[in-house]
Every structure is written in structure tokens, then in C-alpha cells.
Amino acid sequence: MNLLLLGSGGRESALAWKIAQSPLVDQLFIAPGNGGTGAYGTNVALSPLDFPAVGKFVTENAVDMLVVGNEDPLVAGITDYFRQALPSLLVVGPEKAGAMLEGSKDFAKQFMVENNIPTARYRSFTLADIEEGYRFLESLKPPYVLKADGLAAGKGVLIIDSIEEAKQELKAMLSGMFGASSATVVIEEFLKGVECSVFVLTDGHGGYRILPVAKDYKRIGEGDTGLNTGGMGAVSPVPFADEVFMHKVEERIVQPTVNGLIARGIDYRGFIFLGLIEVDGEPMVIEYNVRMGDPETEVVMLRIESDLVALMKAAAEGNLGDMPMDIDPRTAVTVMLVSGGYPGSYPKGMEITGLEALLPAAGGKAETIPFHAGTALKDGRLLTSGGRVIALSSYGDMLPDAAEAIASALSRSYDAAGKVCFDGKYFRRDIGRDLMALASGR
Ligand code: AMP
Ligand code: GLY
Question: Which end of the chain is more exposed for a tag (fewer CB within 10 A), N or C?
Fold first, then answer.
């Protein structure tokens, strides 16, 4: 079959890497892709938001399945568009009503309350009831969590210590700080705990598979300090997300989510991303996303042994049945190399060198897989083109001790991080450190 994957980040590189290994695939197209995705298929200069142009390409190239990597086209209704315009096209990604789980935090919170899914206590406000918003803030303990209702490119969540500042920010948000996205603001209780990301592939008819669990590192600075980023690294599995914890996640969160969507008449065929936090051993939902995580995908793909294309096809056909999803027991980590200055302003067009040092010796396997994110090929030269540049993903050794397994994977990614060069290169040197400490009981 022929596949078209939409997106251009590290997530799409990892998806393309995995998809290209499937015997079911004849041709893989990536739109628009990046400087590395050409290794797995053919890059196509198309905007994922230009549905008619995507449709024309699909028809002309006999594409059988569309995999939507990022949330924007889903929230804009790409799945609904193709269900109408090209019903025979298989689409991996929810219809617009399902994408609201990410597209509207207010909707997501209502959905959780309706389905008894554990989440922080909350209320939503608009400018008309800002005074009530102030009173609700006063009823909470600091820090205060303010969330723009709509998509805000990962910047719409503010966590603030002072009540006065929280009130000012509430007013600023409701007055258009994130445009229409913050016309409604969700205020919620602050939860304290360790976070992890759980991914579910669902077929819209009650069938689902839980993918390997991962933890990402969002802040730019070591020790989880400084500004939020798209993600600076990831580790899978997550030692604290053991069988007991995952059983709770499945019973209290995954099943009610899948069933709640069906009860709402939403035909959700695609990935659900559960942003979870463990509070005193109990999982609670911080957020839903309607796509895979980035950079979590750069470790999750390493750990799925089964044919992902067969699984996605079954999900898109509405029948996952009893198709197995086998998981590689090894640990996988990824370390993100970013442009100096990110997540603030940063230069682009820096030449990237040293990737050839990561190629496997003849007949051998690569120690580290470089998943390109913000890269572009120009006249045969590989240049930086974004904040997050390359995710260096490695497997660890099969070791009984979780901390040692993480350490062995990290030593490979950090070794690679020393070899790949570009001006201004920055990466966090403490990825996985918290998990290693937790795993070894420190
Ligand atoms: P989001 O943009 O929804 O992923 O939120 C960004 C980050 O804010 C999350 O990954 C959490 O670290 C943090 N966060 C969001 N909601 C809460 C909450 N209720 N309590 C504590 N931290 C939160
Ligand atoms: N890594 C978090 C996200 O993809 O939203």
C-alpha cells in the first residue's frame, strides 16, 4: 500500500522510520518532511492544512492511507474532510469532534468529569465572568494553573506562584494574550507528582492497544528549570509506571476515555496521548492530545516490535480485533539537540556535520538513530531549520536494573551528541536522571 504521512518534526521522522520497515508499504510519502525524512520515503512539498491539495496528491499517487502526525490538521477537520471527499482513503487521526480533546481544554475537562476520569478540579471562565474567576483563584492554593482553552503551540499553560500575578495573567489571557485561543481560560488545581505520557491506538469501536509509556523533559534547563520547550529528551519505559500503575491507568482512564468517545458518538480512529501525573501512586490526567508526542515518539517507535502499519491500518478500518502489539523490553532514550537560544529566538541555516560518524559499521547495527526535526537539505548541505534539530535515540542494554539500563542507553546518545556538530548546539545532560534516581531508590 501507499502511505502519506503529514508533518515535519522528529515525531514524523520516527514514524517514517518505523513505517518504512513494514512489508505492507510500497511507497511512503512525507509532507512536507524535513532534511532527514528523505531516507525513509519521498518528501512532498505540501501544506498539511491545504486539504484540497493533499486530496489531489492522494488521488494522483494512489495513496491508500493517510497518517496525520500533528494536531493542527485534525483540529481543522482533515479527517472529516476525507471521510466526505474520499471515503475509501484510510485515515489515522480522529475526526474534528474527537480532536476537541486537544483543541479545547474546556471540552476535555467536561469530558473527563462526565466520564469520572481522575483530573484536577477546575472551572472555566470568559471575560464576562472574570470576577468569578478571581474568586475561584482565591479559593485555590498556590501555585495557580491557567490554561488557554484552544491551541496555543504549547505555550498556553501558565503556572504562577503569586495570586496577584495570577489575576493579572487571567485578565491578560481573557483579553487576547493567545488570541481567540484564550477567550476561555481553564483554571485548575495544581497537582504535584511525576509526569508520564501514555499513548493509545484506538479503532473507534472499542478496540485499543496501549503503546510503550514514555517520559519527556519539557524545560530547557537541567534540573527542569527555565522555559518550556517542545521537549528536550525522552525515556521509555518509565520505571514508576509499573504493572499496578498501568492497570489503574487502563481501568480508570483508557477504558472510560474510549467508551466515553463512543458514547458521545465520536468515531475516533487514531492515537490518543494521555499526559498523566502520578499523585501518591494514583494516575490523574493533566491533558489529552490527539496525536503522538514529540519527542516521546522517538523512543516509543524503537520499542514497538510489531508492524505499526498493520496496526494503524486495522485501527483506521475500525477493527483492531486481536492483532498483537509486541513490545521490545529494552530501554530507549532520546536526547534532543537544539539551536542555541531556543525556545527564544535562534539562528537558522547552521551547517550540521558529523552524522556520518553515527552510521553502523558494515553489517552492524547503528548504536544511535538520528531522527531529524528542524533540519533542511539545501544544495546538498544539511542545515538547521528549527529550534529542535535532531533527536538522538538509542537502545540500552538488557539489564535487570532499570537505572543501569537507562544509563547504558544514555551513554550512547550522549556519545552521539558529542559527534554531531552545528554552531550553537545545546542539549540537556540530565535526561533520565530523575528516573534513574527513583529506580535506584535515591
Ligand atoms: P500542557 O501544555 O497542557 O502540556 O501543560 C504544560 C505543562 O504544565 C504540563 O506538562 C505540566 O507539567 C504542567 N501542568 C499542567 N497542568 C497542571 C496541573 N494541574 N498541575 C501541575 N502541573 C500542571
Ligand atoms: N512531548 C509533549 C508533546 O508532544 O506535546
Answer: C
Q: Which-ligand-closest: CA of 197? A: 2
The CA angle 269-275-276, to the nearest 5 degrees, is: 125
| Cβ proximity of 371 and 294 under 8 Å | no
What is the CB neighbour count within 10 angstroms for residue 332? 26
**How far is C-alpha 418 from the chain's CA centre?**
26
pLDDT score recorded for residue 202: 98
The pLDDT tens digits of the residues spanning 203-214 come to: 999 999 999 999
Taking the domains of the chain in order of start, what are their residue ranges?
2-93, 122-188, 194-440
Residue with cell 520515503: 41
Q: Which parts of 149-290 fold into alpha helices (H)?
A: 163-172, 243-249, 255-263
One of 3.30.1490.20, 3.90.1300.10, 3.30.2310.20, 3.30.950.10 is the CATH number of 122-188, namely 3.30.1490.20
Write out residues with Cβ below 6 Å of ligand 2.
Answer: 216, 231, 289, 293-294, 296
pLDDT of 442? 56
**Closest to 367 measured CA to CA, from 393, 345, 335, 391:** 393
Query: How far is 353 from 366, CA to CA, in rounded Å?
Result: 17
Q: What ligand 2 atom has the least distance to the C-alpha of 231?
A: 1
Ligand 2, atom 4: closest residue by C-alpha: 293
Q: Which ligand is nearest to the CA of 147?
A: 1
Does this model's pTM top 0.85? My answer is yes
Distance CA 167, CA 69 (A): 36
Q: Ligand 2: distance of its center to the CA of 139 in Å?
A: 30
Percent of the chain with pLDDT over 90: 94
